[in-house]
TrEMBL record:
The keyword Iron does not apply. It is a multi-pass membrane protein. It is found in: Cell membrane; Membrane. Belongs to the exbB/tolQ family. This is Outer membrane transport energization protein ExbB. It comes from Solitalea koreensis. Residues 158-264 form the MotA/TolQ/ExbB proton channel domain. It comes from the Bacteria. GO terms for cellular component: plasma membrane. GO terms for biological process: protein import.
Length: 280
């Protein structure tokens, strides 16, 4: 009972962390993006003569050259930097969460071992194996095995009712585990489209600036024209890069969650079928 209570408390703490993670990481990433833009990219050492303004030229080579170029992308750049940091933060958080959910060993090997122990009638050893494996698959299997033991000594239900009870336990345990795996992935999916739209806004603003330079009387201001085009292309590049990263991360995490879900389904099916076969 003590171990079950500790597990429940731990799950509650993890759920609170996951639910609060997005609420504080979003503003922090935006603030950090602004600070990076202002103090790192906008460092005077990144520009010739140590002067930072619209017409300042980045140093000719080195890291400062690229930082200076990105800085000249305008005020949309810190927003995009914040979105990039947010994307990476969510990716790290999801990687840790899904890695824990997968357990300490191979899920397929774990399911095969549980199936073997149940076939031998050693339910207690199967439950201990869940404690060793840990993770979402092990949590669901452990809940099902505990119900399995209860149904073995239950006298007031027929076999079909017992099988349904075990199936219901598997479904309920799965319902509790899956939302934790999918938490915050909606942010990654949203970043895939929002990054492109924010970059498009920066592109449009840069092109407006470029055409304004062309529209001036007399000879066009080549410095303003170049600055406008540069601003447009920099924002486009940052937005497309972050969007591409978000799409890859979303696909990767979704694939990993599908593998865990498949292992849960396979384990639940094995437990139910084993119980039904032994109690015909």
């Amino acid at each position: 009972m003590a171990n079950a209570a500790q597990t429940t408390v731990k799950k509650t703490e993890n759920a609170k962390f996951n639910s609060n993670f997005a609420s504080w990481v979003i503003p922090i990433c935006i603030i950090v993006g602004v600070l990076i833009y202002k103090f790192v990219m906008g460092n005077p050492s990144n520009f010739e003569g140590g002067i930072v303004n619209e017409t300042a030229e980045p140093v000719k080579e080195g890291a400062g050259h690229w930082l200076g170029i990105i800085y000249k992308g305008g005020f949309i750049v810190p927003i995009l930097m914040g979105l990039i940091l947010l994307n990476l933060s969510i990716a790290i958080e999801r990687f840790i969460t899904i890695r824990k959910a997968a357990g300490k060993g191979s899920a397929q090997t774990f399911v095969a071992k549980i199936r073997s122990l149940l076939s031998a009638g050693n339910v207690d050893a199967a439950i201990k194996e869940c404690d060793v494996q840990q993770g979402s698959v092990a949590n669901v299997v452990k809940s099902a095995l505990i119900k399995y033991k209860e149904m073995e000594i239950e006298t007031g239900m027929d076999v079909d009712q017992k099988v349904l009870a075990i199936q219901k336990e598997v479904e309920e345990a799965t319902t509790l585990e899956l939302p934790m795996l999918e938490k915050n992935l909606v942010i990654t999916a949203t970043l895939a489209s929002v990054s492109t739209l924010v970059a498009l806004l920066g592109t449009v603003l840069g092109m407006i600036r470029a055409f304004s330079a062309l529209g001036t009387g007399g000879a066009p201001d080549s410095a303003q024209l170049a600055a406008g085009i540069s601003e447009a292309l920099i924002n486009t590049a940052l937005g497309i890069m972050n969007s591409a990263i978000a799409i890859v991360l979303y696909s990767t995490f979704t694939s990993q969650i599908d593998k865990i879900t498949y292992a849960i389904d396979e384990a639940g099916y094995s437990i139910v079928q084993t119980f039904a076969a032994k109690n015909k």
